[in-house]
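User: Design a sequence. Structure:
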């Protein structure tokens, strides 16, 4: 039977999706399931790896059944995932030794603080990995597990324990516990990869006290990572390819194949990424360098800025009782003529790019007797835009490239107030893809090229479609006023210890 679909698994911070993506680059059917968020202490965030794996199985089986397709019509299974989240499992039992520690989790800040006291170590990490020494990334999380769970150090030294980002955990289970691997995009977010030599760095492993026996094999994203095996409900022999971190997959799905092309993903957090070509561009201004993708065709580096709280800020509005649904925010914000001088800095677990301050606290500034709930809602909405614009401004400085357009994706792109405000504050054209699920689409495109489902990238570009374009509508004076108010608010959040 002819191959009709790529089955893309998107394992995100909030849940797991499976999508059937056709040759026309449309999602013909999709299912999703949420997973539990665990907060054992303030600032700590965990996921249950077993729950995640069972949800991956569940959505794969459900999308095939409900999508009314045959397994023989599936050309490949693609995997995209929340990136810096790390876990350890026992290769003999196949069981996790502890919950996965989520990228948002700040528990390793003391470890990082101790390491940062040694300027030589901090600089080595930055130069080798392109990243900042931060609990945001994977290695400190793995170090914490090894140091805090009794008996793990001894087991790790024997090679019995495996560590990985969530993609590795999924691949391990999909292949019947035969393949322990990751791709270069995920590896570049661990604080363990030599960005230029493209291998695990022994000195970095030593710094974080992680035995090299625990590391997964690193492969290009268009490799065949393995084949499904050992599951009574999923047939053996389906190739697994198109493995990419979610933000990297979105960049690929946006067809940002040329130097200077930039995208922003609006999710629980946000990732802003610029294609800088085949050589890394390093930043001294608070953004990081990663690998966009490595394939049999090319090697792409990126500048990236990461925001801890974007969509999650809107969920906080719901949790705190300001609104009943995230869908209300745009409508409420648009009814105000301006923000009334109210700013919200969502440093609930510190601030990421470009500030990298784990001690910063969330603040609301500028409240007066005339301020209303609507001003706080609008301030939360605007905070997403300001954070993204901070990063865009720095990217243009570091790369020397003016961003002509920003390609955006994620559920929040349906919010017309947010998108117009993004165009206004960033002073650039904002282009919204017709397909909102760019992470799934990007990994599917990678898998499809690897398996011959599509011939080349030109075929992908021909099928790309746009749903809306926003252009700046405010003058420079107003833009400057808004941005100055934001910077003043950030300075207060940073000084609040």
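Assistant: Done.
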């Amino acid at each position: 039977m002819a191959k009709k679909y790529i089955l893309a698994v998107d394992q995100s911070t909030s849940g797991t999706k499976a999508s059937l993506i056709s040759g026309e680059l449309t999602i013909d059917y999709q299912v999703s399931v949420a997973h539990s968020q665990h907060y054992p202490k303030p600032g700590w965030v965990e996921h249950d790896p077993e729950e995640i794996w069972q949800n991956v199985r569940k959505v794969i089986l459900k999308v095939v059944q409900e999508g009314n397709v045959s397994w023989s019509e599936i050309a490949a299974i693609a995997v995209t995932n929340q990136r810096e989240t790390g876990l350890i499992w026992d290769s003999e039992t196949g069981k996790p030794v502890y919950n996965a520690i989520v990228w948002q989790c700040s528990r390793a800040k003391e470890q990082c603080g101790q390491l940062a006291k040694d300027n030589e170590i901090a600089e080595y990490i930055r130069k080798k990995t392109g990243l900042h020494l931060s609990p945001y990334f994977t290695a400190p999380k793995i170090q914490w597990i090894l140091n805090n769970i009794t008996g793990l150090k001894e087991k790790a030294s024997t090679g019995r324990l495996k560590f990985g980002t969530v993609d590795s955990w999924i691949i391990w289970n999909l292949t019947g516990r035969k393949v322990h691997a990751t791709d270069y995009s995920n590896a570049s977010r661990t604080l363990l990869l030599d960005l230029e030599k493209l291998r695990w760095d022994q000195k970095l492993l030593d710094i974080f006290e992680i035995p090299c026996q625990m590391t997964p094999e690193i492969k290009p994203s268009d490799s065949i990572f393995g084949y499904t095996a050992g599951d009574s409900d999923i047939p053996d022999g389906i190739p697994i390819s198109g493995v990419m971190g979610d933000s990297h997959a979105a960049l690929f799905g946006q067809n940002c194949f040329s130097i200077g092309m930039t995208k922003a993903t609006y999710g629980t957090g946000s990732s802003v990424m610029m294609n800088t070509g085949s050589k890394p561009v390093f930043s001294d201004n608070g953004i990081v360098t990663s690998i966009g993708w490595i394939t049999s065709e090319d090697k792409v580096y990126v500048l990236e800025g990461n925001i801890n709280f974007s969509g999650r800020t809107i969920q906080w509005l719901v949790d705190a009782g300001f609104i009943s649904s995230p869908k209300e925010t745009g409508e409420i914000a648009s009814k105000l003529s301006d923000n009334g001088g109210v700013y919200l800095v969502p440093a609930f677990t510190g601030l990421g790019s470009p500030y990298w301050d784990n001690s910063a606290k969330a603040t609301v500034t500028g409240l007066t007797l005339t301020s209303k709930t609507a001003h706080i809602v609008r301030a939360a909405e605007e905070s997403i835009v300001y954070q993204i614009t901070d990063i865009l401004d720095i990217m243009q400085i570091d790369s020397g490239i003016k961003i002509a357009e920003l390609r955006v994706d994620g559920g929040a792109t349906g919010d017309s107030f947010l998108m117009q405000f993004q165009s206004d504050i960033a002073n650039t054209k904002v282009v919204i893809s017709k397909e909102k699920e760019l992470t799934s689409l990007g990994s599917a495109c990678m898998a499809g090229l690897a398996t011959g489902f599509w011939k080349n990238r030109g075929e992908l570009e021909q099928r790309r479609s746009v749903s809306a374009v926003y252009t700046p509508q405010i003058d420079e004076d107003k833009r400057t006023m808004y941005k100055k108010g934001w910077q003043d608010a950030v300075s207060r959040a940073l000084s609040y210890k």
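The two ends are 63 Å apart (CA to CA). The longest strand covers residues 299-307.
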